[in-house]
């Protein structure tokens, strides 16, 4: 399934705006920092292209807001998500029985998938699959856009 | 007439309307059963589902539907679900259903079934029984829920509660519904999932709920299988999950790698901006290469982030015509307010002017 162009465009616009904000703040950056900045802004751009309709996007934005530089993400958008996620985490922690053994192959893999998808630990199995579906599509769009960027930037060399 | 309203209301969203019809048709069939059997409700003290299940099926159906229709009358209709299903779900709608579900356990001994039936039809609920009178029951494909893979999260839990209650109800009526062998299941669109028990399958509430859940998960897994390349041949959940995990991991690694490459490609992030604006076109693959040459002069001059918006703007003016001529979605550009990323006024001015020109 090829991601649609509108998604890619949306992502691109968000990304460029994010990068512009970065460039305003950081003048000198090492390559690793720059890569982190690019990746982070790309992830946030992809998540915001979803406009809060999916859980993984909200979780991603909330995580980015809490961990990294706060100026990239607008405050109003993420506090609500982070609040919701925090309450969910508290609920899960209180209800969870101590059962760390993951019996069965499916359980094990579900656990791995939960770790992969942002905010996946808080979802039940049905929505996890749904979210991973959307996440894969978004990731593909992201990869396509980045790849075309790279090819475009290297053409004139 | 309610018929026209119902049809007009459900015309916009076909799949939801199909489910509505099936649901409404089911309720109609139940009321027919009730009429046919017409035995007064034996017990009035059924305050729990277990008591309900002890009753013979028709009486149970009667009991269920008398309070249900009573509640349908009592609770005014929520906003039509058809429109809701398009995007986000309204919370007040769900809370009302929660109330309904809690009130389910209270059975009012309604002997007046006919009145309830009559008042049932003009009820402008989503289960528009009058609308379904004309249309035949279509077997619902379980994959139509895949047409809306994005579901807002918090409402799913509420709906699963509703689903379980409904399924307990429907499970007790298996005897009367043995002819209907198909089971319809969608937990995403309707707050109630009407699952008909298949012939020869267990009908207690837990297994029904479990089966509904399983079917939903299986439908999604099928979608995933189609999405991930090379997964359609594999059978078995574990291996498919394996493939999905590999795919997600490889995509994430690709993103990392590409971002590293982009970081290394030029000593300025600004470079991306210029080349992107010129290179980007409808398909994002056929870049306007001639246009790239000019703006690449710029980033070598300005290495730090304190870019002047002014020269950037000049370039966009010059290069916009060829590059954006093929733009297909001019109305898809995000205005600064829409995006979740907030940015300062300096940026917004230039970008807005850019967007204005892009809409040519």
Automatic annotation (TrEMBL), chain A:
Pfam families: IBH1_N (PF26576). This is IBH1-like N-terminal domain-containing protein. GO terms for biological process: regulation of DNA-templated transcription. It comes from Hibiscus syriacus. Residues 6-66 form the IBH1-like N-terminal domain. Keywords: Transcription, Transcription regulation. It comes from the Eukaryota. The keyword Cell membrane does not apply.
TrEMBL record, chain B:
Residues 1-21, 107-190 are annotated as: Disordered. InterPro entries: bHLH_dom, bHLH_ZIP_TF, HLH_DNA-bd_sf. CDD domains: bHLH_AtBPE_like. GO terms for molecular function: DNA-binding transcription factor activity; protein dimerization activity. The keyword Cytoplasm does not apply. Residues 111-133, 144-158 have a biased composition (Polar residues). It comes from the Eukaryota. Residues 179-190 have a biased composition (Basic and acidic residues). GO terms for cellular component: nucleus. The keyword Isomerase does not apply. Pfam families: HLH. This is Transcription factor bHLH77. It comes from Hibiscus syriacus.
């Amino acid at each position: 399934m090829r991601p649609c162009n509108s998604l890619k465009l949306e992502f691109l616009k968000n990304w460029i705006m994010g990068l512009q904000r970065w460039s305003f703040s950081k003048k000198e950056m090492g390559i690793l920092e720059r890569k982190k900045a690019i990746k982070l802004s790309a992830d946030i751009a992809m998540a915001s292209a979803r406009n809060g309709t999916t859980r993984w996007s909200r979780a991603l934005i909330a995580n980015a807001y809490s961990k990294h530089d706060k100026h990239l993400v607008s405050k109003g958008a993420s506090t609500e998500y982070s609040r919701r996620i925090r309450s969910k985490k508290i609920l899960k922690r209180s209800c969870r029985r101590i059962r760390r053994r993951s019996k069965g192959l499916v359980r094990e893999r579900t656990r791995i998938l939960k770790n992969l998808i942002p905010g996946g630990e808080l979802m039940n199995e049905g929505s996890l699959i749904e979210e991973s579906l959307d996440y894969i599509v978004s990731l593909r769009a992201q990869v396509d856009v980045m790849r075309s960027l790279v090819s475009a930037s290297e053409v004139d060399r | 007439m309610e018929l026209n309203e119902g049809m007009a209301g459900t015309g916009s969203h076909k799949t939801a309307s199909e489910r509505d019809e099936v649901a409404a048709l089911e309720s109609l069939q139940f009321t027919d059963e009730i009429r046919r059997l017409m035995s007064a409700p034996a017990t009035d003290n059924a305050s729990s589902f277990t008591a309900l299940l002890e009753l013979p099926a028709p009486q149970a159906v009667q009991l269920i539907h008398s309070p249900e229709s009573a509640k349908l009358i009592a609770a005014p209709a929520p906003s039509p679900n058809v429109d809701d299903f398009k995007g986000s779900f309204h919370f007040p709608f769900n809370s009302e259903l929660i109330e309904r579900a809690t009130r389910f356990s209270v059975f009012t001994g309604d002997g007046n079934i006919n009145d309830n039936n009559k008042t049932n039809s003009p009820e402008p609920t989503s289960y528009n029984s009058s609308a379904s009178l004309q249309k035949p029951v279509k077997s619902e494909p379980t994959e139509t829920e895949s047409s809306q893979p994005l579901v807002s999260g918090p409402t799913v839990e509420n709906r699963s509660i509703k689903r379980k209650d409904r399924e307990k109800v429907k499970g007790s009526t298996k005897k009367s519904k043995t002819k209907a062998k198909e089971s319809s299941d969608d937990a995403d669109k309707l707050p109630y999932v009407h699952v008909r028990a298949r012939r020869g399958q267990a009908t207690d509430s837990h297994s029904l709920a479990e089966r509904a859940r399983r079917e939903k998960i299986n439908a999604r897994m099928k979608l995933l299988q189609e999405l991930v390349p090379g997964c359609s041949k594999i059978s078995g959940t574990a291996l498919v999950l394996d493939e999905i995990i590999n795919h997600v991991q490889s995509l994430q690694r690709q993103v990392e790698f590409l971002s590293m490459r982009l970081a290394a490609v030029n000593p300025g992030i600004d470079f991306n901006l210029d080349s992107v604006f010129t290179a980007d076109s409808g398909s994002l693959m056929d870049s306007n290469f001639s246009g790239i040459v000019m703006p690449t002069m710029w980033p070598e001059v300005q290495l730090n982030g304190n870019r002047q918006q002014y020269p950037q703007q000049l370039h966009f003016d010059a290069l916009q015509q060829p590059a954006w001529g093929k733009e297909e979605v001019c109305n898809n550009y995000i205005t600064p307010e829409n995006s979740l990323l907030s940015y300062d006024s300096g940026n917004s001015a230039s970008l807005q002017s850019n967007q204005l020109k892009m809409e040519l």
